[in-house]
Specification:
InterPro entries: HD/PDEase_dom, HD_GYP_dom, HDIG_dom. By secondary structure, this protein is mainly alpha-helical. It has two domains: about 210 residues, Hypothetical protein af1432, CATH 1.10.3210.10; about 180 residues, Orthogonal Bundle (Hypothetical protein af1432). The protein is about 60% helix and about 5% strand. The chain is built from 19 helices and four strands. The strands form two sheets. It has a two-stranded antiparallel sheet. Strands 2-3 form a two-stranded antiparallel sheet. Helix 2 packs across helix 6, helix 15 runs antiparallel to helix 16 and helix 16 packs across helix 17. The two termini are about 30 Å apart.
């Protein structure tokens, strides 16, 4: 099985953008005085990448570096969700999310040689950035992303000529932050109305963005996707103080069940991936709600329920994994049609989705949380069989889980 690199990058970028929209981070970068308030940004990864690609065109960048800029732009903020949501010190946040992002990307298959691009995407040309790199010691890819990031963060989506002019003037006067050639490229680009029109519309019309998307000459194998799934499962579980290693444990349970059922090895790996990624949509939920130590309001519970919807939205974007998407995103559906988010009934739920739902409930009952001690198997399976008798979950799946442990 092969997964197209462009589809995967698009899904990962969407995941990061959803996480940023849920972020409560609000800081001002010390040197540039740029205000980073991520929840106000929309499709930041895509728009930053679009700007970076246009800058590459102006700079006549080689296709090899252009591809590195594209991947680096799409994933430049991968470290944000590993950082504390409640930073007040801008310099600490900037350096921490750069270091976290570089560390995460260094473990990626295919993309691990790009970690320095993410590490240094907040460096200033005069050496006043978080890691004090000076001038062209800063990778050119990082320099391009630096400007692109600031433009999108500052610009939002506005048709105000005054805002554009202020931004253009600000960039032109900041040779301490950007090199002269990067500034010249932007000033040339900024004269083209089509650049601003595209920036205003790119999040609404995918075909605009696709014009600037490189065609990569490689795919992602299933085993490489498994490695990436492990990385994102850890990011998901770090997002909530309550979940520990919940996603990894669901992945192990799913794999164990698949083995017990004598599925072929590829399907066993797919089941593991579905377990690892079943809660990836939780990245779209603010930490303050996920970590609330008390009863949720109806509005907060509604937001919590949306995580299964976002899991589907993210995985559906990959296109090459329809089965994994089905199994992972339907883990809160019920046989009697009372689940969420689609209210599917038993005739619409695959065997694998039913199994994953049972694994999810069992693991939640069995694991320790800050507010409770995990149940032993006798108590956990009593609750599972009670739920099965109420036509909520599949009794056969409960039996299979019990036999596979």
């Amino acid at each position: 099985m092969k997964i197209r690199a462009n589809n995967l990058l698009s899904a990962l970028a969407m995941t990061l953008d959803l996480a940023q929209k849920a972020s409560e981070i609000k800081v001002i970068e010390d040197f540039s005085r740029v205000k980073y308030e991520y929840k106000k940004l929309s499709n930041h990864s895509m728009q930053c990448t679009y700007i970076a690609m246009e800058l590459c065109n102006e700079l006549n960048i080689s296709s090899k570096i252009r591809n590195r800029v594209y991947i680096g732009s799409m994933l430049h903020d991968i470290g944000i969700n590993s950082a504390n949501n409640y930073y007040t010190d801008g310099s600490t946040f900037i350096s921490d999310h750069c270091k976290s992002g570089a560390k995460i990307l260094s473990t990626f298959p295919k993309f691990n040689d790009l970690s320095d691009i993410v590490m240094y995407h907040h460096e200033n040309f005069n050496g006043t950035g978080p890691f004090k790199l000076l001038g062209d010691l800063i990778p050119i890819e990082s320099q391009i992303i630096r400007l692109s990031d600031i433009i999108d963060t500052t610009y939002y989506e506005s048709t105000s000529p005054a805002l554009k002019d202020n931004l253009i003037n600000w960039v032109s006067k900041n040779q301490k932050i950007f090199s002269s050639k990067i500034i010249e490229a932007f000033l040339s680009l900024s004269k083209k109305d089509v650049f601003w029109f595209n920036l205003d519309n790119i999040s609404n019309y995918d075909f605009i963005f696709k014009k600037f998307t490189p065609e990569f000459n490689f795919d992602i194998t299933l085993n490489e996707f498994l490695d990436i799934s492990y990385i994102f499962s850890e990011i998901v579980d770090m997002h909530s103080s309550f979940t520990g290693k919940h996603s990894r444990d669901i992945g192990d349970l799913s794999f164990s069940i698949a083995n017990h059922l004598h599925y072929d090895f590829e399907k066993c790996i797919k089941m593991k991936i579905s377990g690892l990624l079943h809660d990836i949509g939780k990245l779209a939920i603010p930490k303050s709600i996920l970590n609330k130590n008390g009863q949720l309001t109806p509005e907060e519970f509604y937001l919590i329920k949306s995580h299964a919807y976002y899991t589907n939205l993210i995985l559906e974007r990959i296109e090459d994994i329809e089965d994994i998407c089905d199994w992972a995103s339907n883990h809160h559906e019920k046989l009697n049609g009372t689940g969420y988010p689609k209210r599917l009934s038993k005739n619409s739920l695959s065997k694998e989705a039913r199994l994953l739902a049972v694994c999810d409930i069992y693991q939640a009952l069995s694991e320790d949380r800050p507010y409770k001690k995990g149940l032993n198997d006798d108590k956990a399976f009593k609750i599972l069989y009670d739920s099965a008798n109420q036509n909520l979950i599949c009794k056969d799946s409960v039996d299979i889980l019990k036999l596979s442990l």
